[in-house]
């Protein structure tokens, strides 16, 4: 059993999520304790604890706020960029499945509006988007969401 950046955790929505940040070490001990206690008393722990908020990491580097939301896969996703708000930009991680484009992650630098929207959009896992609208820097990221 482990928590924090050394651990992968199972999540009902996001499957395997890397620890990746000290915040995970603060929020995941209850999940691990539940599994340990279930093992000790011979009961079965729930297969997945309730889904957590969108996986993310954040930092401030040289006066820049950087955030990564979602579960991008560098091997399978393409990256598209949005230049936003002067010195800010966002990288969108996009995965094609036939004619459908999924947003799997968003990396933001000094783009608080994109960061807030990415956190909400990706809370349930990857979402279907219109990639042309998504990269349009004058539009809100949430307007690219394809409603079905």
Number of domains: 2
Total helical segments: 4
Structural classification: alpha+beta
Q: Roughly how many Å is the radius of gyration? A: 17 Å
State the total count of DSSP E strands.
8
CATH class of the largest domain: Alpha Beta
This entry's quaternary arrangement is: single chain
Q: Which architecture name of the largest domain does CATH use?
A: 2-Layer Sandwich
Question: What ranges have pLDDT less than 50 throughout 5 or more consecutive residues?
Answer: none
What's a concise summary of this model?
This protein is 22% helix and 34% strand. It has 148 residues and is of the alpha+beta class. The model has no long low-confidence stretch (mean pLDDT 82).
């Amino acid at each position: 059993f482990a928590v924090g950046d050394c651990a992968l955790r199972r999540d009902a929505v996001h499957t395997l999520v890397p620890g990746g940040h000290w915040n995970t070490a603060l929020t995941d001990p209850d999940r691990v304790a539940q599994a340990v206690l279930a093992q000790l008393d011979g009961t079965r722990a729930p297969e997945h604890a309730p889904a957590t908020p969108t996986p993310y990491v954040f930092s401030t580097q040289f006066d820049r706020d950087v955030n990564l939301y979602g579960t991008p896969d560098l091997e399978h996703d393409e990256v598209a960029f949005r230049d936003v708000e002067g010195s800010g930009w966002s990288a969108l991680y996009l995965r094609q499945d036939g004619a459908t484009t999924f947003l799997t992650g968003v990396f933001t630098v000094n783009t608080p509006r994109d960061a807030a929207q990415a956190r909400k959009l990706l809370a349930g896992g990857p979402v279907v988007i219109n990639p042309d609208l998504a990269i349009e820097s004058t539009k809100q990221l949430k307007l690219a969401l394809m409603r079905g």
